[in-house]
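Attaching the record inline, Q. Sequence:
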Amino acid sequence: MNKLRQIWGDLRSSFWFLPSLMVLGSVVLATTMIEADSAWSDHWLVQWPRLFGAGADGARLMLSTLAGSMMTVMGITFSMTLLALALASSQYTSRILRNFMRSRVTQVTLGIFAGIFVYCLIVLRTIRGGEAAFVPSLAVFFAFFMALGGVVVLIFFIHHIASSIQASSIIASIAHETIAAIDRLFPEKREPGPDEDEGQDQVLRSLDERTWYTVPAAVSGYIQSVDNDALLRLARDSKTIVRMEHGVGAFVVQDAALASLALTYPPDQEMIAALNGAYSISRHRTIEQDPAFGIRQIVDIALKALSPGINDTSTAVMCVDYLTAILAQLAVRQFPPSHRHDGEALRVITMAPTFEGLLAESFDQIRRSAEGNVAIMARMFSAIDTIASLTVSPSHRRALKEQVQRIAELADRSIASTHDRAQIKRRMIHVREALEAEPALCAGEEKG
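Structure, as predicted:
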């Protein structure tokens, strides 16, 4: 199942798969229209000679013109797409190129122009003059309407490209895709109560006494997804414990440890192949099971904006805003446990994402690149204030307090202006007061 999911993801993000399907549809449509002309033209198309009465020479000329025009427009479309990819890569980060390639608008546009071109060619080759003349009038008339539709698509595509390369559109698109992955991976809301990591250290110490055999990775690459149900079945059938050595999004090296098995004997090749089959490993990361990659893309855009060569604080502030929206969703979600059981027996030890890890992924590098930037520090304080108003977890609030402390240290070290330091200090005091308040009280104030 993981392999099928990986293949489908690669097809979905390619420029050729959907356009090829649309070209195939055009071939079927052209054949159908020609057969319809052959069967019905003598009966009712002759009743409208002004619409369907084009001769062989006129039909050939029109179809030749349409086919040549569509090929020219398709070349322009490819050029605009490649230009947008180059601009996005240089201005923001190369990691967002896959998002552009996954764009349904771009793929459908290329498919429409290629489909019209192929349709015109197929209809053109059936036109005959002379005594055994045959002009598929209905197919020719339909080609004319397809060309008009192609003009509309071209205008819309130009608008789409102009909108899609704007920083706000790119960042919002990544954030929405990341939030969708969070909704899919962590659908349950977190209930108020203590954290569920108590007693885990004792369990881990008891597991250290076992004999662990490492399972090597079959290929090098990034872990795109893991079939946890397949790991659970493998552990249950083998009466063992599977311990993941790398989480989703991590890079693994061929023949290095991918996971470990608690066994009394080394695993056989069948078990090694089954465990590798539960992992989807490729040369790039995806967001489907890896929301940290969505965060990584937005952080990269912020770092590029804060670099001395660009110095675009507004884009970096926008990145912090959308990171806040993502972390606000994570703050209220129930994260999956790292230990999975089959009844009472421990079977799988996963490397599940945590709020603390994703918070550090979001803010640590941006903070280090924001020396002396009052706007970024102030917006990060506002972000932490917003997240603190939503979370009820003591561990979440501790992580937020650590972020506040690090931003305060950065402000004391890098801001020279007394006025700016005082402004940052006021914001810091407000955020600390919000974090020190009881979570239940904050929730009650929100409701009130």
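Strands lie at 212-216, 221-226, 242-244, 251-252, 257-262, 279-282, 339-342, 345-349. Residues 441-448 have pLDDT under 50 and may be disordered.

More tomorrow.
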